[in-house]
């Protein structure tokens, strides 16, 4: 189970938020297999076209019109949210809590990329096995990585979900965010450990729907 108790969010007797989770469109760094984290990269032409097709053709966009569209404040998510809003309606609210997880010195690098002649093997192994063993489990590696810890990451994901549950009961909310953020949120909402693989990382522009329950104790 997640270290954070969110049973109140899943109480079937309470009002719910219809939550549509959307991963941003394909970026130049996605194509180059570079880790982005808090660094940014522009959407590709294909990424923009796919987002437009999604906004026009995806059945969720037709069945659930957004009352509000929350988005990460990183450029790739903001650009994606604008494309979706132009077709689906709603207004955009940027929120830093929707940022991707920060991965420190690995950001902007291709997997197993050499840096000044040194292969960051230990750091990449820790990243690749992060669903088996917490990324901050080894204090030495964590200190060198300068990455966001699991408790810090989970704290801001949970904080955002609680905000939605309080503010938007009975409403439809689109959330445009990032792969690790959506994976973590899905884990929390389904009672799984936040850092486990769970349903994995969604594809670029992938959409899924969750009923987010409000709680009297939140």
Automatic annotation (TrEMBL):
Q: What is its EC number?
A: 5.4.2.11
Quote one Gene Ontology molecular function term: hydrolase activity
An example Gene Ontology biological process: glycolytic process
**Which keywords fit this entry according to its UniProt record?**
Gluconeogenesis, Glycolysis, Hydrolase, Isomerase
CDD domains according to UniProt: HP_PGM_like
Q: Which PANTHER family match?
A: PHOSPHOGLYCERATE MUTASE
The similarity comment for this entry is: Belongs to the phosphoglycerate mutase family. BPG-dependent PGAM subfamily.
Per its record, how is this protein called by name?
phosphoglycerate mutase (2,3-diphosphoglycerate-dependent)
Source organism per UniProt? Photobacterium sanguinicancri
